[in-house]
Design goal:
There is one protein chain. Helices cover about 75% and strands about 0% of the residues. The chain is an all-alpha fold and about 190 residues long. Helix 1 packs across helix 2, helix 2 crosses helix 4 and helix 9 packs across helix 10. The longest helix has 23 residues. The termini are far apart.
């Protein structure tokens, strides 16, 4: 079952095969979780959303048309769930618990040390990108999706993906240069 193609697993899931669902979940939940976590920036919310994503996969397996790879379909569902959660969260009132969870961006010794780390600087630069640009960078570089697959996940034309990629890389380059890192990106 571990070597069964995703498309076959989806067909079996549509027939109610729980083992196929377990295999598909094991194969894709970490990637989907990381993608959602980068969007919502909250581990508990990301975990809840991934549960919802795979519940939708279970319920909608019979509707899978195969127009994209199964992984692309799953990330598309995950993206929709994450964006919906972010909209709801921005509409919610700020309560004491939420206020306490807001990060203090003042430099402390630990933060000052982390800024010296290039990986930390890159993550910081990525967080300053717009949601649209960060999403494209995440899908292309961290999830190794093609321009065509990203267009399918995000629901925009391929040309728009390329344009967003261009401007995202340009902005990242500027942000990194401000931090003293010259990546040599065009």
């Amino acid at each position: 079952m571990q070597t069964t193609p995703d498309e076959v697993l989806i067909a079996r899931i549509a027939g109610g095969d729980r083992l196929a669902m377990q295999v598909l979940f094991a194969r894709h939940h970490v990637r989907a979780y990381r993608f959602v976590l980068r969007l919502v920036r909250n581990e508990a919310t990301a975990e809840d959303l991934i549960s919802e994503v795979f519940l939708d996969v279970w319920r909608q397996a019979g509707q899978f048309e195969g127009r994209a790879a199964v992984s692309t379909w799953i990330l598309g569902i995950a993206r929709f769930k994450a964006l919906s959660a972010m909209r709801k969260r921005s509409e919610a009132e700020l309560d004491d618990e939420t206020a306490a969870a807001i990060e203090d961006h003042a430099d402390n010794p630990e933060t000052a040390l982390a800024k010296k780390d290039k990986g930390s600087q890159l993550r910081q630069a990525l967080s300053k990108l717009s949601n649209e640009h960060r999403e494209i960078i995440d899908l292309v570089y961290y999830h190794e999706k093609s321009v065509e697959e990203v267009a399918g996940i995000v629901g925009i034309p391929e040309a728009t993906v390329k344009t967003r990629m261009f401007y995202a890389r340009k902005k990242l380059s500027e942000l990194l240069k401000e931090q003293g890192i010259d990546r040599g990106w065009p």
